[in-house]
Amino acid sequence: MSSSPFPKRNDLVVATVKSVEEHGVTVSLDEYDGLEAYIPRSHVASGRIKDIRDFVKEGDKVVGRVIRADKKLGQVDLSLRYVSETERREKLEEWKERNRVLSMLKLAAQRAGYQDADSVAREAYERLQAYYKNPLDALEDVIYEGPEPLIKAGVDEKLAEELKAIVEGQLKPPIYVKDLVVKVVSYASDGVERVRRILSRGLEASSGADVDIYAAGAPRYVISIRSRDPKVVKRAASSIIKAMEREVGASDHLELVEERERRKRT
């Protein structure tokens, strides 16, 4: 069962081209158990289309935007025109990550002795998706935290234990990134030097993480902290802010405006 039983209007979906005709293209939706969808000729590409096969061929993998979805009739229409290159690239990457996670979940289910490994894998994926924004984040957390993140998300303990061994063998830790957006102002006569010194104190307190500081339109600065160990990033962020606070004088002002966390996969 798909994590979303039927696509909704405006959703981005990954599809495989099944047949190409003069009036349009028939595709199967990879994330919806092969549900068929249709791409009208006018939505294959922008501008005049002389030969539709100049744009799509049987077997092509495409990303479309749902422009019509009738669950009752089981009919879905897509547009390729209404998908930007950035959206296409990001959706394909999301789809690849989904397949990777499902593959590891299925292998874990087989090793754990479940009879219907496919169903168990899909159910576990849905639980992870409900608990995490990205299920791959959950598997990466296992590298440092063991099976506990999976169990907290509702994955069966036996499956979580098998998955731990698989993850440790197949996944490389991502680079954890935390951006601290700070506002630093000094009203002292040597204010420029004071601001530089406050930022420098933060840089010196990086606690083993890689740290860059850059201006985001003075008086705002971004302190970007990176490590493959999330605990190092967390520790460095705390140390940096404390070190900067210790340097702040009576004529200075330091404010943590925003914190942003992300992961870079290499």
Automatic annotation (TrEMBL):
GO terms for molecular function: ribosome binding; RNA binding; translation initiation factor activity. SUPFAM superfamilies: eIF-2-alpha, C-terminal domain, eIF2alpha middle domain-like, Nucleic acid-binding proteins. Pfam families: EIF_2_alpha, S1. GO terms for biological process: translational initiation. Gene3D superfamilies: EIF_2_alpha (3.30.70.1130), Nucleic acid-binding proteins (2.40.50.140), Translation initiation factor 2, subunit 1, domain 2 (1.10.150.190). It comes from the Archaea. Residues 10-81 form the S1 motif domain. This is Translation initiation factor 2, alpha subunit. It comes from Korarchaeum cryptofilum (strain OPF8).
